[in-house]
Amino acid sequence: MNQEKGILFEKSYQENLKEMFFYADADPEHGKRIFLDNSGGSLRLKKAVDVKCSLEMFPDCPERIHERSLYLKGLVEQGTKDILEIVFGAKSGALITELTASQTMFQAVGTIMENVKWGSNAVTSSIEHPSAYDAMQYYCEKTGREFRVVPANKKSGGIDPDEVMKYVDKDTCVLSIMSASNISGNIMDIAEIVRRAREVNPDIYIISDAVQHAPHAVMDVEALGVDAMNFAPYKFFGVRGCGFAYVSDRVATMRHHKLLAKDENVWELGTSAPGNFAAMMEVIKYVCEIGKEDCNSSDKREVFKAGMHRIHLQERALLSRMLDGTKEVPGLREIEGVHVYVDTQDISNRDLIAAIGIDGIGFTECVAEYQKRGITVYERINTSVYSKRIVEALGLEGAIRVSPMHCQGIDDIDQFLKITKEIADEYKC
Length: 429
Fold this sequence. Notes:
Number of domains: 2
CATH architecture of the largest domain: 3-Layer(aba) Sandwich
CATH topology of the largest domain: Aspartate Aminotransferase, domain 2
């Protein structure tokens, strides 16, 4: 089967998946709209939201010994196990839990940088999310290390392994490279970067921010050999108010913020929120249901991997449709006045994101025009403290980020393309 341009779900199956999410086609107060800002926070799986809500009703503490408390404690324990083993693919290590994925990144970077006494420098890239970039810079300054920044490939929107290796040496303590760009969707070759970095320095600590990538493809910390990786449930069909990160065994037992009476590899501070774990378990079940279509294994990790792979193929097909269109509906590459930034003909190494601009109209104004026409997208511009470094590293002043989701279909894409052409024609010079 040719997977170069992806494989679409059957229409009825895709529509059934969409029904499993809240407000997929309309806002309850503001009316119909196609939501194409899933990189800012994905559509919410109904079962994840419902189970979170149902568990928040109980006052019981998971640390008590009555029936409800034991049940809640069991959810935390099972959820921790499932997130580590099924989502991250970890056979060992520990889980960091915080209110946000950004906080988990600061925890991981800070713990490594403050515990490791060797190494005169640390390396990250110019297109990292501020949580990773800022954490690396902050702890370099705090520990007296040189802060090195790998430039982006302005054609692909990614970070090339060859370029990374110009900055890594035997004195590099930490290397932090994101799994995929949140502007271009380019997927980094983390496996190759890890392999080559460890050839130079076998003891280097390697971190990858997977917040953007996790909803689109499989994370596998064991296969990659990274020491830390994180994701945000609110971008992964789940709920806000929690972030999760894996840390390897050699990081897990480092001195870190913890209750002194707890075991050295415990990162939990205070009582966990069982609803957050239960919500993520519902996301896992959802992905596994998709995976069962192609995998009849009894190993949940294998079924989960099959589900994420199928999601990735669906999204590749949607990306292909969005870029190239059809005879009836021209794609972004064909619409006069529309520019697809950091575009690559080979879309096999991209997540479902497109960065675009339209002649004759500013990015913020264009987002408002889309909104008037029932399309929700978002701009990333160099006047934003969150986006300035990243877009300028790609040689841009800004971009409109278009990020659909696997449960959406070709009708959603085609409607977006028709409206894009309307805007481009209206503002044509």
